[in-house]
Amino acid sequence: MTAQTARSFLAETLAGNTAISLPFPLPGGASGQVMDEGIIRFDPQDGAGRELDLVVSCGVHGNETAPVELVERLIARIFSGELKLRNRVMFVFGNVEALRRGTRFVEEDMNRLFCRAPENDDNTERRRATMLEMHLLRFFGRAVADQKPRYHYDLHTAIHGSLIEKFAIYPLPRQGRQFSVQEMARLHHAGVEAILLQSTTSTTFSFFSNRYCDATSFTVELGSARPFGQNDSVDLGKMEAYLTQLIGEGLPQHPLHGESYAAQVGCPVFRVSREIIKHSREFRLLIDGKTDNFTPLPQGMLLAEDGEHQTVVTEASARIIFPNPDVVPGQRAGLIIVPA
Ligand SMILES: [Zn+2]
């Protein structure tokens, strides 16, 4: 594939026509290279003058298509020469087979499969997650050598309704690092209406890049999941403008006023108080599994039962997020969050 022959990187990917290529030139002196199925990177002509290296991933869940269409637009704008690169950028369509089928996953939720050691009998999704890790380590290796900041936004849409439509999950920082208020403010200006701070390690794609690539990374939820071509109601204009700025120019700086996270960031900031783990098949969630994300939970409410074990809401101002009683035992059936 070259800049001349590519009709659409998404169409080529879904048709099974993408595989590692030699670098090819783009208008204006930049270059592109397909790294693997559904993975393409672009390098500016003047690598030394860049400010940062960026990875934008989407389609880790195959039925979440609005961010995939956004990434496809960004790629097309780079191919045409309309979006000129200042910075290195790599785009990733995460779960290609699930994208073809229009399903969340084929065998397993891929966003639980990062940060693990590969095994011989790994299924397709496990192997793909390992390959994505290798591609990020390789791509960010140059930024580590050149001491450039690394950014990774893993874009999703939610299968749930949500009282807050666009929100971002900030992975727990590495030891000695802290959550950055400036990074949260940048996302708020990109249209994100709430930030959720993780309190534990995790097995998501954004946790991997934060932990192992020392990247500023977020899982970003951008509205509700719909099939390709039905995303008119999902407004990604601010996010597209922000990513365009990161690719073509650099990092915006926002003045931070006030004391609290919420005042400085400009939107509510929550932290995870507890994970609700489904331990056995007896597990029962006592609210509807379709309850909207961010629905308030009254203090003292019995939220879940699992045999002898009861989960009672003890926190003040608690809310529920990602309720899902249908996960397999051992997995998370929801999160209780509170203001940070
Ligand atoms: Zn998702």
UniProtKB/TrEMBL annotation:
Binding-site residues for Zn(2+), renumbered to this chain: 61, 64, 156
Gene3D superfamilies the UniProt entry points to: Zn peptidases (3.40.630.10)
Keyword list, A-Z: Arginine metabolism, Hydrolase, Metal-binding, Zinc
Cofactor, how bound (note): Binds 1 zinc ion per subunit.
Gene: astE
Organism, as annotated: Chitinilyticum piscinae
High-level lineage: Bacteria, Pseudomonadati, Pseudomonadota, Betaproteobacteria, Neisseriales
Nuclease among keywords: no
Protein name (record): Succinylglutamate desuccinylase
Residue stretches making up the Succinylglutamate desuccinylase/Aspartoacylase catalytic domain: 53-245
